[in-house]
Inverse folding.
């Protein structure tokens, strides 16, 4: 079944908020697990759109990348 | 005049090797003198504070860099690596010290005007310090601040016809040898393939969705100048499947001393007369060469493509004409489980103009790894955990004796019940009629 953007976005945001007390950054696989019937590439399209809408931001250590809600946890301005 | 005293770093300059400390000091002097009157967009003291904070780390034995961060350009999940120091008041020049990776040209051919643009850009908007090239092979621009990132990206993409490279859980910047552009050993056009796949997989390069990093490297022959077999998750190594071409007259000329062996590469010292038995025949790892009665013979079926004989006598021996590449999977550095070399997955594939067969293999491999790979697990580790046979299965590759490294060492290829006539069921009484308990 094809993913509907608004529904998938709501599910992702809800998932992130449900974990907000313990963590602010998530691996890509955390999101594919939310949509076990869907292909990883389709989940990626949803995440990319959420990045482009600035709902999500990328976090990177240099070697690993993660996703987080815009403004949640440590962010660039807060690093100073 | 440098701000910080750096006695420990100064000591590093006393060795016989070129020193990064000396290079950074040169940049410090240049930025303070500023003979071109550059309007530096990040503090002129950036390289000075870099040495200062490094000296502090040497004194205290611990790092003052914080781990990662949210920096990047809009829509990109790689190419910029956020670095912040935890002593910004003391070392304001490196409060931000982000790294920018750019996609290097295939084979690392540069025009001088491009290099000049690059240096001018990095003097203006960065620290002036570069790393040409990083371990992945890309152009590494060291040290800039967050507000400069979009400016740098605009300049690079609009005025330099370039793009960011890969970092994080992305496809990393693909890299290749100079291939057919200069090398007679090239079995396929590694530069073209690198360029094609870089364009094809832009999404994988810039938007992270893999469990961890993934590197492509392209070597046009098995001399492996970019060491793809050891440094890339998927390496493409040129090979041939017919015979090494031998010109017996030229072999005789080498033996007679008319032509210098190794293309004259070891001419700086007198090594004595060229001895084909000792220098070629005896050094063949699969012992498939014979030189008798003035004739060189090669048992091509046993050749393992080490190319030593070709390198020693390049005018007499040439690569075969039926060329393509081998694909190996799973090389990595030793963070977990120790280092791994790539495992041969596709012994030979013709390199077509559209790379259709290659892309089919790549995408099947990725789909499997994205599904099964654990977070921060390289594909070489997934292979080790789930078995090489699984990769063959998901990519539709038929098991082949060439997949076995050596007998009884890695018996990862097992028969499945459906592949065996009669399956696993058997008539035990029939067996017992021939075998006692």
């Amino acid at each position: 079944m094809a993913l509907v953007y608004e529904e998938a976005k709501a599910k992702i945001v809800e998932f992130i908020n449900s974990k907000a007390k313990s963590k602010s950054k998530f691996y890509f696989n955390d999101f594919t697990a939310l949509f076990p019937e869907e292909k990883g590439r389709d989940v990626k399209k949803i995440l990319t759109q959420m990045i482009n809408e600035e709902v999500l931001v990328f976090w990177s250590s240099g070697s690993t990348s993660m996703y987080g809600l815009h403004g949640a946890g440590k962010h660039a301005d807060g690093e100073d | 005049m440098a701000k910080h005293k750096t006695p420990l770093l100064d000591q590093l300059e006393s060795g016989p090797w070129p020193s990064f400390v000396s290079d950074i000091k040169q940049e410090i002097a240049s930025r303070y003198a500023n003979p071109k009157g550059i309007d530096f967009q990040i503090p002129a003291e950036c390289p000075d504070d870099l040495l200062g904070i490094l000296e502090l780390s040497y004194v205290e034995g611990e790092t003052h860099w914080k781990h990662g961060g949210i920096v990047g350009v809009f829509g990109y999940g790689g190419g910029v690596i956020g670095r912040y120091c935890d002593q910004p008041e003391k070392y304001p020049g490196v409060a931000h010290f982000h790294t920018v990776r750019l996609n290097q040209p295939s084979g690392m051919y540069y025009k001088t005007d491009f290099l000049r643009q690059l240096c001018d850009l990095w003097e203006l908007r960065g620290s002036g310090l570069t790393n040409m090239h990083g371990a992945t092979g890309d152009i590494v621009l060291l040290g800039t601040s967050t507000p400069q990132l979009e400016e740098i990206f605009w300049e690079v993409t609009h005025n330099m016809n370039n793009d960011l490279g890969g970092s994080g859980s992305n496809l990393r910047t693909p890299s290749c040898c100079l291939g057919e552009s200069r090398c007679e050993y090239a079995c396929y056009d590694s530069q073209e393939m690198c360029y094609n796949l870089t364009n094809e997989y832009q999404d994988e390069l810039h938007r992270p969705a893999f469990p961890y990093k993934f590197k492509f490297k392209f070597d046009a022959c098995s001399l492996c100048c970019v060491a793809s077999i050891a440094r890339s998750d998927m390496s493409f190594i040129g090979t041939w499947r017919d015979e090494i071409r031998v010109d017996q007259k030229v072999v005789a000329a080498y033996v007679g001393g008319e032509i210098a062996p190794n293309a004259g590469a070891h001419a700086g010292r007198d090594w004595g007369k060229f001895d084909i038995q000792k220098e070629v025949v005896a050094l063949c790892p699969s012992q498939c060469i014979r030189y008798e009665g003035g004739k060189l013979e090669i048992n091509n079926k046993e050749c393992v493509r080490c190319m030593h004989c070709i390198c020693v006598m390049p005018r007499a021996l040439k690569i075969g004409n039926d060329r393509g590449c081998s694909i190996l999977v799973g090389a990595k550095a030793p963070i977990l489980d120790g280092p791994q070399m790539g495992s041969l997955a596709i012994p030979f594939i013709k390199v077509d103009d559209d790379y259709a067969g290659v892309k089919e293999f790549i995408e099947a491999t990725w789909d499997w790894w994205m599904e099964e790979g654990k977070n921060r697990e390289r594909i070489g580790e997934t292979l080790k955990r789930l078995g090489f046979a699984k990769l063959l299965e998901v990519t539709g590759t038929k098991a082949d004796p060439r997949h076995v490294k050596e007998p009884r060492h890695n018996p990862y290829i097992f028969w499945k019940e459906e592949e065996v006539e009669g399956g696993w069921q058997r008539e035990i009484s029939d067996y017992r009629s021939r075998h006692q308990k």
